[in-house]
Design goal:
The chain folds into two domains: 8-85, Beta Barrel (Elongation Factor Tu (Ef-tu), domain 3); 107-154, no CATH class. It has helices at 64-69, 130-133, and strands at 8-17, 21-27, 40-43, 46-53, 57-63, 80-85, 107-114, 117-123, 135-139. The strands form two sheets. Strands 1-2-5-4-3-6 form a six-stranded antiparallel barrel. The chain is built from two helices and nine strands. Residues 1-96 form the Lumazine-binding domain.
């Protein structure tokens, strides 16, 4: 589980293609506990598992479906990614509870700048709960303006 609050920004150092996956080496000094083998880290909102690490970088893998339905398929060496280590029991939440798992795709149908925020309207399957289907507010920062593609949890707009 994650809070959805970005804890750091890493840089994709290498992308290693595979038959059904890509391996990403990300330059960022995670704490030893956060980079242990098998640890979960949200990479731009998508939960991935650490498969190797050093004091200066860590390695994760993304399978074909994850690459197809998230923005991770667009990553190249030099790409910057938002990072959040998984919550531990007793950690302060300070945000929301977010799984980091992609449940489906939505089509962005509207984007309205509202001060420092961007209101995004989306269309998705009727089977999703109504609270998930109507709108998402995306906070704008210096690196994310209303002209930036803003889809929740690293999901692509379909």
């Amino acid at each position: 589980m994650f809070t959805g609050l970005v804890r750091g920004v890493g840089t994709v150092e290498r992308v290693i293609p595979g038959a059904q996956r890509r391996t990403f080496v990300i330059a960022y000094a995670l704490s030893e506990g956060d980079r242990s083998l098998g640890a979960s880290v949200a990479i731009s909102g998508v939960c991935l598992t650490v498969v190797a690490s050093t004091a200066r970088d860590f390695t994760v893998e993304a399978a074909f479906e994850t690459l197809a339905v998230t923005t991770l398929g667009d990553l190249r060496p030099g790409s910057r990614v938002h990072l959040e280590p998984a919550l531990r029991l007793g950690d302060a939440l300070g945000g929301h509870l977010v799984a980091g798992h992609v449940d489906g795709l939505a089509r962005v149908r509207s984007r309205v700048a509202r001060g420092d925020a961007l209101e995004c309207g989306s269309t998705c399957r009727a089977s999703w709960p109504a609270t998930s289907r109507s709108r998402a507010a995306c906070v704008s920062t210096a690196s994310a303006s209303p002209s930036t593609r803003s889809t929740p949890a690293g999901s692509r707009s379909a």
